[in-house]
């Protein structure tokens, strides 16, 4: 009986986590020489909350260091796998075609994964306000038209390819004065279950490419012994 209740509790917790949402609230404000990036993460129905507020340069440096650490970990794992497997490189045309085929498969899988994530992500309260000024009023007026066309086309493109809800877009020119103020905000909402599915797809892709490569190498080695 206790085991049954434990199974029910575990299944219930899994379903709660799977159907919960990860909400990322991103705000960027640049006023004169001050610029601040604020990122707030909320998950598991508000149980987990995390907020970071930094100058944009420090925020970018943190992201760069995080990406660098991930790359180093991935490189170390790859080196360990290479040490375990003794790979004999073939210079045949067959091996070349097989390598190209694997690269093509990985590219298609990554495209599929990217499209899946784009479809599942919902961006709401998208806000973009730009206030700019140039001393030459004529150039400022021309830039206003160009910026407006670019922003409009960008929003239309985004709405055609993903779930995007626009709150406000404003472009304000200031004449006879050099100035650049910017305010950006959006809320990214994605279900935890979709993230889990995407991770499964990524793991399956990486394992599949490694298995294909190993199988080919072994078959080549077996064939090479016959000659």
Structural commentary:
This protein is of the alpha+beta class and 227 residues long. The protein has one domain (2-226). Helix content is 59%, strand content 30%. It contains 5 helices and 6 strands. The chain is extended and about 75 Å long. The relative contact order is 0.16.
Helix-strand topology string:
HEEEHHEHEEH
Low-confidence stretches: 85-90, 209-227
How big a fraction of the residues is strand? 25-35%
Rg over CA atoms: 25 Å
Instruction: Look at the helices and sheets and give the structural class.
Output: alpha+beta
Oligomer: single chain
Ends apart, CA distance between termini: 65 Å
Shape: extended
- Mean pLDDT value: 77
Strand order of the largest sheet: 3-2-1-6-4-5
Number of helices: 5
What number of domains? 1
> How many distinct beta strands?
6
Share of helical residues:
55-70%
Major pleated sheet: 6 strands, mixed
Summarize the structure.
It comes from Lutispora thermophila DSM 19022. Keywords: Membrane, Transmembrane, Transmembrane helix. By secondary structure, this protein is an alpha+beta fold.
Blueprint of the fold:
Blueprint: H1 2-19, E1 21-31, E2 34-43, E3 48-55, H2 56-84, H3 93-120, E4 122-134, H4 137-161, E5 163-175, E6 179-191, H5 192-226
Parallel strand pairs: 4-5
Antiparallel strand pairs: 1-2, 1-6, 2-3, 4-6
Helix pairs in contact: 3-5
Features:
disordered C terminus, 5 helices, 227 residues, six-stranded mixed sheet, 6 strands, single chain, alpha+beta, 59% helix, extended
């Amino acid at each position: 009986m206790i085991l049954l209740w434990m199974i029910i509790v575990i299944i219930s917790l899994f379903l709660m986590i799977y159907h919960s949402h990860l909400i990322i609230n991103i705000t960027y404000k640049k006023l004169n020489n001050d610029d601040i990036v604020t990122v707030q993460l909320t998950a598991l129905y508000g149980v987990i909350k995390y907020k970071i507020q930094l100058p944009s340069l420090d925020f970018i440096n943190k992201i760069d260091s995080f990406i660098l650490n991930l790359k180093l970990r991935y490189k170390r794992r790859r080196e360990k796998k290479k040490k375990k497997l003794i790979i004999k490189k073939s210079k045949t045309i067959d091996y070349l075609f097989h390598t190209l085929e694997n690269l093509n498969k990985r590219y298609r899988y990554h495209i599929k994964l990217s499209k899946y994530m784009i479809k599942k992500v919902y961006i709401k309260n998208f806000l973009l306000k730009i206030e700019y000024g140039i001393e030459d009023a004529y150039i400022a007026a021309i830039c206003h038209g160009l910026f407006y066309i670019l922003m409009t086309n960008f929003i239309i493109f985004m709405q055609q390819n993903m779930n995007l809800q626009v709150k406000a877009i404003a472009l304000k020119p200031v004449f006879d004065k050099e100035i650049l103020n910017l305010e950006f905000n959006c809320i990214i909402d994605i279900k935890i279950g979709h993230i889990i599915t995407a991770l499964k797809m990524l793991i399956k892709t990486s394992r599949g490419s490694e298995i294909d490569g190993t199988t080919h190498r072994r078959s080549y080695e077996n064939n090479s012994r016959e000659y």
